[in-house]
Amino acid sequence: DNMKMALEKVHPSLKLHTNNDFFHLVPADGSDILRIDRVSHDLQLISAREALPPSTEVRDIYGLFGIIRLLAGPYMVVITGRRRVGILCGQDVWKITSTEVIPFARATRHLTDLQDRHNREYLAMVHTVLGTDGFYYCTSFDLTHRSQQLHNTSPDFAQMPLHERADQRFVWNCHLLRDLIVEPDMHRYAIPILHGFVSISECTINQRVFTFALISRRSTFRAGTRFFVRGVDRDGNAANFVETEQIVTYGKAIAAFVQIRGSIPLFWSQTPTLQYAPPPRLTHAELQKEAFRRHCETQEVQYGNQVLVNLINQRGREKPLADAFDAQVSLMSNPKIKYDAFDFHHECRNMQWQHLDKLINRLVPEHKQFGYFALNMQEDVISRQDGVFRTNCIDCLDRTNVVQSMLARRTLDEQLLGMEILRPGETTAAHAQFDKLFKNVWADNADACSVQYSGTGALKTDFTRTGKRTTFGLMKDGWNSMIRYYKNNFADGFRQDAIDLFLGNHVVELAEGTSMPCPLERKQSWRYRVLPLVLLFVFSMFIFCMIIPASSIRMQFTYCCFWFAAILATLGFMFKTGKDFVNQPRLRAKDKDV
Questions:
Q1: 271 or 71, which is more confident?
Q2: Rounded distance, CA 213 to CA 97, Å?
Q3: Which of 65, 144, 348, 378 supports an S-S bond with 166, CB 3.0-4.6 Å?
């Protein structure tokens, strides 16, 4: 069965034998051993009958994440901890809980002091990505393809190694596997790893037990952080592109519904400048039409008909984006694409969240037309999904997740009714235990997608979890917004570099720091060093004047006003030259976004 497993699964666990010269990865089933030479960096398979040299350490690991090359040489990334998420189509799905990065070289004495410093920074970037929550894998099932795709494949496809058959858009360790995949015989060590969110729950409604799963697959194409990666590139790849599939299995029956999200597919930027929300700006006007066409045609090949649900503000600073989006859809004049703009913030102002029903009701005809993928108990196809809702807001996070969860709920009721789990006229909302689980799973999905893109949990999840906005939810949103502001301005440059390094968008050259410059060595403006010290000084003087009495109250008031004005002037100048204080990426080429 194509939906169930590959002919030869990846090794589910290994023994890692380490000594000064070699790593040996030993499978439990007695198949060939992977030997990695720490000096020559060669990889080869040896017979399990061959005697291994004495090891200084033997430990259990759960797989090889891959190998990445830094200034000190290659580093091996291994999976040291995992947690079973659940069973999907009879196969165990795992979440990675811990990893270890092990250098091939036993010392870094061959590096200069500058190279050693840069190598430590590169290594910190690798740890930053690995420390981001949300890496998943399965050793015997293809998590990267949606259910409808898996069912449509040929028997030959089902027998391909997992890393070869995987959808490369969603394989986050593809760059790290390059040393393994050049040797076909090593495929049982190559685990394709998904980044995003996976939830698998066993549920009961009306005494019928079924599995409810939600999988969000984050794309590696144009991956990055909130303000540094927006819009599309020349190839039509959209930033923050995520494919989300909701799956129900009941016996041998399967029902699946797919939605996608992605940044507005135009050339636009929102460069951080210390402002809370820098204004979005359209760029590369001459390239907009072609990039938009490529994006839409690629999605049409993948998913069929599309409804582009645009949730950004239709007024104010976001209006030029909304108008340009609408204009490009009109220019394409493609009957397979429908555009639906819904000003989320305006419609739901003053906590009027019931107005979301206007949008959902408006989408009912397309919802019925697109349908969902379904197999019956005899594993015969009884319906296919013939289109997709592509939802976006400015970040494709908070507003997007609210609308996607509402569309998913409507489809789920139809699916469970078709499987005769729900009785005619019933809805999942009437079953309190499942209703709570459904809301929490979608809210957890929102948080996971948000942390991976913006650095904090999602906003508006109180509505997703409870069906209404709460005071506590508003307070939590305020806190998350402050954390986002800090990270987006003062931490995301490093995080963007980490993602680019991990995905192979930047490949480290061994000569960096010697015969060629290292991109990490970038001089900061004098303002970056001087103005924060000036601000600290004038703020200290203001506090000093507040607490130390002067000869008269009038004199003290004058001093306080002077230093307070100095604070405002310094802050004003810093915000005017805000880019100088933002943590900028250093590994991205200037034309990367084009």
A1: 71
A2: 20
A3: 144
